[in-house]
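@channel sequence for tomorrow's demo:
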Amino acid sequence: MLLAAERATEDLSRHGRTRVALGFPNSYEIGMSNLGFQWVYRLLNREEDIACDRFFADEDADRRGPRTLETDTPLGDFPLVAFSISWEMDYVNFLRILPAARIPLERTARGEGDPIVLVGGDCARINPAPLAAWVDVFAMGDAEKIVPGLADVLRRDLTRDATLAALAALPGLYVPAVHGARAEGAEDGKIVVQQFKAGEGALREPPHTTLLTPHTELSDKLLIEIARGCSEMCRFCWAAYAMAPQVRVTAEAVLEIAKRNRPLTSRAGLIATAVADHPEILPILRGLQSLDYHVALSSVKIDAISEEILAILTKQGERALAIAPEAGNERLRRAINKKVSDEMLLDKVRLIARSGITQLKLYLQVGLPGETAADVDDVVGLVDALRLVFLEEGRKRGRVGTLVPTVNAFIPKPHTPFENEPLDDPAALEEKMNRLDRAFRKMPNVTFRGMPVVEAIWEAYLAKMGPESAPILLEAAAGAPVRRLVKTHRDALMAVVRPARALALPEHETPRGVFDPHARQASPWGFIAKS
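structure tokens (generated this afternoon):
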């Protein structure tokens, strides 16, 4: 049923002698909504003599074990089983799939007849250390840079050890068995991430959906990546720093893809960390409008909001939008390098309300470095002020809108200037979320969504843990609930998310938003460098 509903945006050869299984360790619905996964599938199948099948971690998998969608082949029959992992929460699914497929979980237990297990995606280039005991090869960088070399090695049909050695010689591939636990065997002890330079953007083919399907979160939507990286450089954002500099695709290239695929769908989605930051966003939107596409923008950078962008969205019936103020006042926004004043925010929300948008999601954080109790109160004050603007403009049009403050805990991420900051004290986070919940419950036309603190602890641990996390991850893969894991292993988790060295320094001696090369070198991800 799934295959029958798919419509390809490119005819791909399915007759390669060398076979690869590419998996997304989550459901088909979520995996096929991921543009990176779809793009790697396209690139692999474009390679001469390579045939790539897909697999997923759907709960209804039969007792025969995981098998590929295209040919119903067991994963163990492939010479290479590759995973695209974009979210640390999917580690547990990865760890469940290998035993279910009868592939030895420990990489040291695999022999000549076993597949080589490769992991790529954001998680590979953020911090491969937690999975190093189970992964033969990590692909670290842009797929366009890595797939050709990988395919060339696979076509050579070498022994398992010779294949690993050949892959280890390629830029951007980390092979723990060859390079060592901290890449001490690599050149200069570093694995250099392979990624596009800014100047290559104009020459780049825009990554776009390979297979349209109604069975996804983004049903039948043609996704087109218009930029990679972000110019905003918020100090908490991994994508901004790890993917810098920003690589933009031209409006002409984007619209050529849209025109070619218009007979297949009338729905398009633009993908970028900050979509409206693209210097040609208006020509892109106008072009899509002229092709009669319904266009979706996941989130719009606040200072890029304009009457024309809003008019294009609302004319096609769009009534929901998301923006990210991140903090409740200008002082804290400046501290995280979010260049948005209170005056600008109020003006832009007034524009949004006037345009006919009736649901506005606000992405906010608590527990940011340097935050005070007054800053948390300012989150309440900010939402109330924006609510009043929304109500005032809505009443003029006879349609009162809703604000949805979506508040997450600040999660320290590797490769950011805040990577050495501790997670806020869990008890303090709980109190802040409860305080916001009480305040927002009293506000009409406000729907509050807060991140559970136990999820914040777990997510922060997954982002920064090292190889010592293996027993805890295996417990999670065996089915232990996150709440129980956080309670049972609290000391181990706190040692990672609230390390003593970060808590011991007096406030005035703790540099904020500045990279510490010594701490970076000692971190689990310290051997990762940028090209």
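heads up for whoever presents: Residues 199-451 form a domain with the pyruvate-formate lyase- activating enzyme fold (CATH 3.80.30.20).
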